[in-house]
């Protein structure tokens, strides 16, 4: 098997380097040794110990590899669904079920996940918070050398079903050996009974695993937790009546308070979407250490409200950003979602000068944080040599972060993971 080209024992340089961990560097460079960053700085101040190393000079902007805070790579084959437009989460869910049920060959989940991994690599992404619903999609991150966590998903489990074999089946799945890091994904507080989620989160915590769920994605979700509105569970048909929230007429709690009551919040957990949450709910997430991965383009396709990006930024949240899957998003290019976040924040009145810095932080350090990783997401000596280069022209006097946020989509020319070249445009 042919090995990947490497940038080990060499200098990767660019017109601009964005360490994220520090100020932008004009004519910057990164020295790579044994898969790690050995030095970061201005090319003209290269230390003598690296003077004999080859230098690869790239046009544009060099960054850490991007970190996608929410994906389902196994749905890469559902791109036709993601190219549609929908009026609500419930409308999209009905169409999603048609696509899902049409998959007859389980191996398709693995093929689609591999296709998705390749697409994401080609756009500069090197790490993922990846949800796996079907076994054939498992192990793809490790296969591609990608960093991150594969969260095994539980969905549609009422207490009755959980006690009739669901518990044993999920635990056995979790016990299967795998090459990568594993987490637990209780799909959403509406698609699992609360007692099931309590067991799932306890199981994850007993094994030191992280937790990832979908919260605040549906406009009618809150009314289920409050008084038992059945609308968000429409795709479950007659099975809806098995869910405790419907049988009990809700709980009278808001979305985040209900999530807290079933042990879904905490510093070891992060949520996708977080759209339909008021200030009190958002404060509860922040104060509990629960981070949110915002997925603006997916929300737009499904027909949802815009996430309160400006509020998250003003209120002191450390957000991440995700593409979601091609079943609800036009592409797996994370910089397209970074641009969308910036546009939303501006439209919502965020006028601070740090906007582009913060949304890039969300796609790097913020994503690393939801994976509980401190060795990725920035360019600093000793960190992993996970790098991306974007062929973006930075005008004289322009902040390179602004250039990358506003024009970075589709511009990745190089992706490096642990010193190995995993994507090179034209290679």
Automatic annotation (TrEMBL):
Entry-linked InterPro entries: Amidohydro-rel, Metal-dep_hydrolase_composite, Metal_Hydrolase, MQNX/HUTI_composite_N, MTA/SAH_deaminase
Pfam family, one: HUTI_composite_bact
Residue ranges annotated for the Amidohydrolase-related domain, each copy included: 61-420
GO molecular function ontology, one term from the record: hydrolase activity, acting on carbon-nitrogen (but not peptide) bonds
Domain Aminodeoxyfutalosine deaminase/Imidazolonepropionase-like composite: 28-49
Superkingdom as given in the UniProt entry: Bacteria
Record SUPFAM superfamilies: Composite domain of metallo-dependent hydrolases, Metallo-dependent hydrolases
Keyword field: Hydrolase, Metal-binding, Zinc
PANTHER family: AMIDOHYDROLASE-RELATED DOMAIN-CONTAINING PROTEIN, AMINOHYDROLASE SSNA-RELATED
Protein name per Swiss-Prot or TrEMBL: Cytosine/adenosine deaminase-related metal-dependent hydrolase
